[in-house]
Write a structure and sequence with these properties.
Elements (H helix, E strand, L loop, with lengths): L32 H13 L7 H15 L6 H15 L10 H7 L1 H14 L2 H39 L5 H9 L5 E3 H8 L3 H13 L4 E2 L14 E3 L1
Antiparallel strand pairs: 1-3, 2-3
Helix pairs in contact: 1-2, 2-3, 2-6, 4-6, 5-6, 7-9, 8-9
């Protein structure tokens, strides 16, 4: 109630404390928010004196959080902005870099670095902290990608060796990375086949431990029910 979702705030907000007078940080007054966001947008698209994209992303994220343009969800949107900018500038083809995890894991330091910008103008320490987070997130993403690729390869070998496997189960398996959470009906649509054939293909993968039913409806899988499996 009263959070004005999707709208710029029309009232003063603050971070910490019970009122602006005892808050840890008080963002700009609401009447300044539209112009500040416009200035930030211009900075995103400016070509003059171009900074390295990662440094520019760090500056934009900090400025967005300082403006705090919404009454709720500023942290989530600010973290999404990081991924959007990395993709916008061609640093990532897919949003595989989870910098948010690093920021959450080091939340106290994250807040301290942002506060140091506002109180002391210490942008350098913030940028160094952010770049360290990017490096850690990149290393973790690389490990995750290798682990997932290894799992898929191992599961593919098990499926190929199974006497119960059939063409439909092969085709469904290859589709799983694109739909890790699915119903039998969705599998039927993707396979362009009948419901019984799709259901049988799902059962093969389930029996091999490749997919797991999570809704408790697998014993009554019909076109009228929606049991759901995860990869």
């Amino acid at each position: 109630m009263g959070k004005q979702p999707g709208e710029l705030r029309r009232s003063q907000n603050w971070i910490g404390g019970t009122r602006p007078g005892n808050a840890a940080f008080v963002p700009p007054p609401p009447e300044r928010v539209p112009q500040l966001l416009s200035d930030l947008e211009q900075f995103v698209h400016t070509q003059a004196n171009e900074l390295p994209p990662l440094v520019k992303t760090a500056l934009i994220h900090a400025q967005f959080e300082t403006i705090h343009p919404f009454l709720d969800g500023n942290g989530r949107i600010g973290r999404l902005l990081i991924a959007a900018l990395l993709e916008h500038w061609g640093l990532l083809e897919q949003p595989l870099l989870y910098v948010s995890g690093y920021l959450k894991q080091h939340q106290a330091e994250y807040y301290r670095r942002l506060s140091a910008i506002r109180a002391e103008g210490d942008w350098e320490s913030w940028v160094a902290f952010f770049l360290e987070g990017v490096a850690v997130a990149a290393a973790e993403a690389e490990k995750s990608i290798i682990a997932i690729a290894s799992l898929i390869a191992a599961d593919r070998r098990r499926l190929l060796q199974s006497p119960k496997a059939n063409p439909a189960s092969y085709r469904l398996f290859e589709l799983l990375p694109l739909m890790p959470h699915f119903t039998v009906e969705r599998a039927r649509q993707q396979l362009h086949t009948t419901f019984p054939t799709a259901n049988a293909a799902v059962r093969v993968l389930e029996q091999l431990g490749i997919v797991l039913e999570v809704t408790g409806q697998k014993k009554i899988a019909t076109t009228a029910t929606k049991p759901t499996w995860i990869f």
